[in-house]
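Order emerges. For instance:

***
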Amino acid sequence: MVDRYVDPRKIRSESHLQRIRSAGRRPRGADADPVVCPGIRDQRSGSKNGRPGSGQCDDQRTSKRSRRRKRAKRDGPGPKGGIVTRRRRLPRPVKSTRFDKMVESVSPAMGVRRAAARRVLQLERYRQKQLGRTYEAAKNDRLRGYDWAVERVSTDQALDEDLESIRWRARDLYRNDAVVSGVIEDRVQKIVGDVGIQPIPQIDVAEMTARANNLSSPHERREAMASIPTEDEVSELNATLSTLWDEWQPHSDAAGLLSFVDQEQQIQRNWDNDGEILVLITFDETDDDKPVPLALRVINAARLETPLNEVSNPLIRLGVEYDENDKRIAYHIRESNGSLDGYSTTYLRIPIRDGNNRIQIVHLFEQQWPDQSRGVPYISPVATKIKDLKDWDENELVAKAMESALAIFIKKAGSSEGLFPANDEVDETTPTGDRIKNIRTGSINYLEVDESIETVNPQRPGSNYAPFVEWQTLRIAGALCWPYEWLVKDYRRTSFSAGRLAGIDGGIVIRHRQRKYNDHLLRLIWPRFVEQAFLSGQVQIDPIGWNLLRKSFTRYRYAGPVRPPVDILKETQAMVLMIQNRLATYAEYYASKGQQSYADAFRQIAKEQDLIEDLAIAMLPAASPEGVPKIEDEPAGESDGESASVPATTPAPEPAEAPQ
C-alpha cells in the first residue's frame, strides 16, 4: 500500500514537489486535495479511485488478449504461435542504504551524485555481463575472467615497456636455440641469397617518348623529344649502368668491410631478429676503387632511443621525432664510443631528409598498427613456446644422462664411520650439515649401516615426446608463416605435390619481403646511384634530357635469388605448354629467372645462333612437347593422392580461322 503523504523535509526542489503531486501524493498538512491517479488505492475508503468494490480503474479493465496485443505492439511479434517474449529490461536501481539517506539529509546534491554513480556502476556491470553473453571472447567467468588480463595501452606505450626485453630475449634465442637460428638464417638465404636483391636498369625508348609527350610545355616537349637516345644508345646505357653497379657493390659499405649483398644479408638478419633496422645513405669519396661515391651504413636498432633530456617531449616517441602533423622528421641515435662497454650517453639527431630534401635514412620494419613507431621481433608471438620447448628438450637430455650414470653402492654390516668413498672423494655438506652424495658415471660409493638406496626409473623420453615436439613445431611454423618442411629441413615424408605447395606458400612470404626491400630501399638507392654516375661522367646522358626525363633514366626493376625448381622436367614442360596455349608469356618466364629481360634473352639467343652457324657446329634438333617423354605418376606411397604429372602429349589447340 502506497503512502499518500510525504514528509515535507524530504522535498528537495519545486520540480520534486510537482512530481509528488502528479503521482497522487501530497505533503502532510497541505490544504490542497490529493490528485488521485488510476491504480493508487485510497487508504480511507478502501477502494480505488473512490469507487467502492471496483478493485481497478477504468484504464486497467482490459482482458488478457488486450494486454497481449499491447505487448506485441511494444515488443514485436513472438517467435511462433503469437507468443510474445518479454524484451530484456535494465536492472532496477539499487536501493539506498542508511548511510546514503544520512548523506542525502545533510547534502541533497551529494546524495544525488552518490546515487548516480551507483547507477552508472550498476549499468556498466550489466553491460559487461551482456557482452559476456554475446561474445565468448569477452566472457568474465571463472575460467577466463581472472587470468585473462589485458593491457589497454597504446602500441608505442606497450613497446616502450616491453621492446627492449623482447629484443634481448630474441637475440638470446638466436644465439642458443636451433629453431630460431635455423629459421632466421633460412630466411636470409631464401630472401636475399648469395646474389642479393638487385636493381636491373630498364631504360626504354617507348616509355621515354610517352613521358616526353605528356609534358605540359610545348617547348619542353620539343627539347625532351630531341634528347631521347636511340635504341642502340639505350642498350649501351643499360649495359654501362649494370657494369658500374657490379663494380660498386664490393665497396658499398661506408666502413669498407661488407659488400652490398653482405649488407642485405645483415639487414635481413637484424630485421628478423630485432624487428627493425636502420640504413643511412651517405657519400664516401675516399675510395678510389669505387666508381660512384655512394655508400651505405647499417645502424643497430638498439641505438635508436629517446634522449634523456627529451623524455617529456610528446613529439619524440621511442627515439623517433614527429612534427605537429604526426609525420616523421628525424631519428635520435646513440653514438658509439668505439669500445666494448657499449654506447655513449650522447645522441646524434639525423633528419630523415638532407639539405636537398632527399631521404637519407631508412627505417625498415613491419608496421602492424597505424600508431606504431618501432618494429617487433619476428619470433615474438612464439618466443615463450620456443623457450619452453628448448628447456624441455634440455631436461630430457639431462634426465637421460642421469639415468645412464650407473653407480655401485656397497653396504657394510659394521660401522663405516671414518671411511671415505672408494673414489677418494669426500661428500659435500649443506650449511645445515646434511650430506650431498655425488654420483658419477661408474662411481662406487659406500653406505652407512642403516642406509639404503632406492632407484628412480624416469622412463625418458616418454612415448609422447616426439609427437608433442612435432605438434609444437607445426604451431611455431604456422605462427611464423614459414613452411614446416623449411623450418625442420625434413623432406622424408614430402611428396612432389606437398613440396610444391610448401614452395608456393613460402614464395608468397619471400616475395612480400623482397617487395619491401624494393619499396623502402632500392627505390632510394638506385636513383642516387644513377645520378652520381651521371654527375661523375661515368655515363653519357644529355643534360636537358636528364632534367626533363630523370625518372625515365632511373627506371629499373628488381630481381631476387631464383628459386630452384622442385622437379625441373615437370615445371619446364608445364611452362612450355602454358606459353604455347597463350596462358603465359616469355616475359613472365624470364622474370621468374630473375636476371634478365626477355628482350635481352632473345638478343643473346640470336647471338649464340649466329655464332653456331658461323662455326658450323652440329646441334641436336630442338625438342617439342610432343617429343618429351611422358612423365609417369608418382609410385604408390609417395604421392599424397593428387597426381602432379603434366600430360606431355596434349597438342596445342589450333587457332580459329578469322571470319571472311
In short: The CA atoms of residues 559 and 595 lie 6 Å apart. Confidence is low (pLDDT under 50) at residues 30-61, 79-87, 418-426, 631-660.
